[in-house]
Amino acid sequence: MAKKRPSLTEDPIISTLAKLTWPMIFGMLGMVVFNLVDTIYIGMVGVDELAAIGFAFPVVMFIRSITAGMGIATASVFSRIIVSQERSVMQKHSMYAIILAVIVVVIFVTIGELTIIPVFRLLGATEELLPLISEYMSVWYAGVIFVVVPMVGNNIIRSTGDTFTPGMIMVFASVLNIILDPVMIFGWGPFPEMGLKGAALATVISMGMGLVLSLHILIVKKKLLRISKPDISAMFGTWKQIFYVAGPAAMGMLITPVSLALITRIISEYGSDAVAAFGIGSRLEMFILILIASLGSVLTVFSGQNWSVRNYTRIYKGTRISAVFSLSWGAVLFIVSQLFAGEIASVFTQNEDVIRITSTYLVIVSFSYGFQGVLMLCTSILNGINKPMVSFGLIMLRMTILYVPVALVASYLFGLKGIFWAAFTANLTAGITAYFMVRKVTGAHAEREIRVEKNYLKRKEAETAKNMDQEAVLTS
User: Fold this and answer.
1) Cα 410 versus chain centre, distance
2) What is the pLDDT at residue 2?
3) How many beta carbons lie within 10 A of that of residue 463, not counting itself?
């Protein structure tokens, strides 16, 4: 007999979130580990290659943010309609969502392929690094189409409350990428040595295989997608719902790589070693916040389903539980970073200057990771309850209003360390603000829900008392 899937609207909150989060941890961990392994192998090739992917990182995040925004919107919209729509309707919604995602990504990728050199010149890349960056990005851009369908498709599956299947698809693609990386970078077996180009090609092949698996699950196993002639009116209706969340969500996610690109430009004034160190630090953050990111992906669906059935108190409690977890995990990360920052940095490179700068970054910024996690969780909840503009505003607060301007001033006053303290300040301030913002939004609805329930109970008690009085009169 199949194991019962946790109910997002009824079962105990902590156990429900835990059961749904652990498969996503493995999936996201696989994606982050392959990025870290990628960095380690490229670091073996040389510091220039490491600096090249340091410059590439914000642009890669830019494109991934577009697809991730589409995925977030899909999870939000589908989690709020999954309880009321028939499977045939869901199949059409799924097809329309994937068509939209492909169109959007093709547009951005075409622009990206045509602007590689000018964009990276603008980011501060030297003429010596531009050929390496172009070699990597030209292949990476060509394979982005293999990212978008699994991203959207996995979120369709996740909106039903099944986090295991998309998690395992992510693990499969990541493991394949880790296997292919050294083969194509260093030229093992029949493959020629391709360096950075090989790293990008390994990613494209593994994501392509993930695409095949995702489509198989969606069409054959889950029967959540059926290719048919689109109803233009219905398709635009679905696109409108998705864009309502995807627009702010994608823009919110795009703010991060754009801001990181600006930070990278500021850091480039301190040399390639500083850029390489910042690239390592940024990728490390993806790894050490994997628990929070996994929980955030679940909270979008959790809050969406509970919002659709007006279970506001449950969202209110889930916010508090999630924030406590994030701050606790942040405390662990802070302690580890203070004790082992140098050892962690040395995993990625043997260059003493890069190790020193990376260690400084971790020591300063690590205390704020718990608050950065709170921000991530709160924006996930806001997207789930169809409040994407509030989520967008909080991301703007962290990156555009705080991080970049403070980094500019702090760099002038305090040098490279000032930029790292700017990251600390932005994470701390935005995290605290996000928590109280979500508590305000969900709390108002929760208090209204409690008042309605209390009034209902009072009416029932009054009716019961009245009936008892009438029965007493009749019996007397």
Assistant:
1) 28
2) 41
3) 10
- Environment class of residue 465 by beta-carbon count within 10 Å: exposed (0-12), middle (13-18) or buried (19+)? exposed
Contacts of 264 (CB under 8 A, 6+ apart): 54, 55, 57, 58, 123, 124, 275, 278
Task: Check if the beta carbon of residue 446 is closer than 8 Å to that of residue 313.
Answer: yes
Q: Which two tokens stand for residue 412?
A: 């002038």
Residue 214 near residue 150 (C-beta atoms within 8 A): yes
Return left, alpha or beta for 125; rule: phi > 0 is left, psi -120 to 50 is alpha, else beta: beta
Quick one: tokens of 86? Answer: 């028939």
Angle at CA 393, nearest 5°, toward 70 and 104? 20
Find, among 330, 412, 416, the residue nearest to 371 by Cα: 330
CA distance readout (Å), 400 to 255, 262, 396, 426:
7, 10, 5, 9
145 is written with which tokens? 């189409």
Rounded Cα distance, 407 and 421, in Å: 8
Q: Among 37-41, 394-398, 444-448, where is mean pLDDT lowest?
A: 444-448
> Exposed/middle/buried for 99, CB within 10 Å: 0-12, 13-18, 19+?
middle
Q: Tell me the pLDDT tens digit for each residue of 382-406.
A: 988 888 889 889 989 998 899 999 9
Residues belonging to the chain: 476
Q: Which amino acid is at 241?
A: Q
- Could you tell me if 174 and 17 are in contact, meaning their C-beta atoms sit under 8 angstroms apart? no
The token duo for 462 is: 């009054």
- Is residue 44 exposed (0-12), middle (13-18) or buried (19+ Cβ within 10 Å)? middle
In whole angstroms, what is the distance from residue 320 CA to residue 13 CA?
11
Sign of CA dihedral 311, 317, 320, 321: negative
- For residues 147 and 34, is the Cβ–Cβ distance under 8 A? no
At 259-293, the pLDDT tens digits run 888 888 888 888 888 888 888 888 788 778 888 98
C-alpha 339/C-alpha 11 separation (Å) is 40
List the one residue out of 283, 239, 282, 238 whose CA is nearest residue 263. 282
Report if pTM > 0.85. Answer: no
